[in-house]
From TrEMBL:
Organism: Pontibacter arcticus
Subcellular location(s) of the protein: Endomembrane system
Protein name per its UniProtKB record: DUF1232 domain-containing protein
Lineage of producing organism: Bacteria, Pseudomonadati, Bacteroidota, Cytophagia, Cytophagales
Recorded superkingdom: Bacteria
Topology within the bilayer: Multi-pass membrane protein
TM spans (from-to): 77-99
Keyword Transferase attributed: no
Disordered: annotated span: 136-183
Residue ranges, compositional bias (Polar residues): 136-164, 172-183
């Protein structure tokens, strides 16, 4: 077993990670698979975020990376290199794999290689992340389109529409009669 602290660049250069990159490329054609991947990463990161300071940092980084990939895949955030999206998907795939260079079942070390790879990747795309967070801030502060309210023709009622029919013809419109009957 390798007892040295893993280096993110070394993990990224490994043949193992190269295969993950190839798999990540196939995800570009399947946005629903990317959405599921991001959801799975969120679940795992949520479970791990209380492990310590490193886990908290990984949690933050994964959130930013996930939002960036999601916005790029939806076509909302443009100009991001495809290689960055593929790399981000590959990092998330690696994070989700229980058996990777250091299997996740090994306490602390199993998570350390994931955290190291994520930190290395986030550092290597720092300028892209800065552009994304700037873009994201403008999206949140941009005026929202006015809410559209459904028109009366769009609303579906399940109420008794028999008012005005012979059953109620003895009552004028808007007239409510009380009855003293008990149910």
């Amino acid at each position: 077993m390798n007892t040295q602290r893993p280096e993110g660049k070394n993990i990224a250069d490994s043949p193992f990670f190269k295969r993950i990159l190839e798999k990540a490329e196939t995800y570009l054609k399947h946005p629903s698979k990317v959405a599921q991947l991001l959801n799975d990463a969120f679940k795992k990161a949520t479970a791990k975020k209380s492990v310590g300071a490193i886990a908290g940092e990984v949690w933050e980084n994964l959130q930013i990376l996930s939002r960036m990939i999601k916005a790029a895949m939806a076509g909302e955030y443009k100009g991001i290199p495809t290689s960055t999206i593929v790399g981000g998907i590959a990092v998330i795939l690696y994070f989700l794999m229980p058996i990777d260079l250091i299997p996740d079942f090994i306490p602390v070390l199993g998570f350390l290689d994931d955290a190291t790879l994520i930190a290395w990747f986030m550092t290597s795309i720092k300028s892209e992340l800065d552009r994304f967070t700037d873009w994201e801030a403008t999206q949140q502060s941009a005026p929202q389109a006015p809410e559209t309210h459904p028109t009366s023709t769009d609303i579906v009622h399940n109420a008794d529409n028999s008012f005005g029919t012979p059953k109620y013809s003895d009552r004028g419109q808007g007239t409510i009669t009380e009855t003293n009957s008990e149910f």
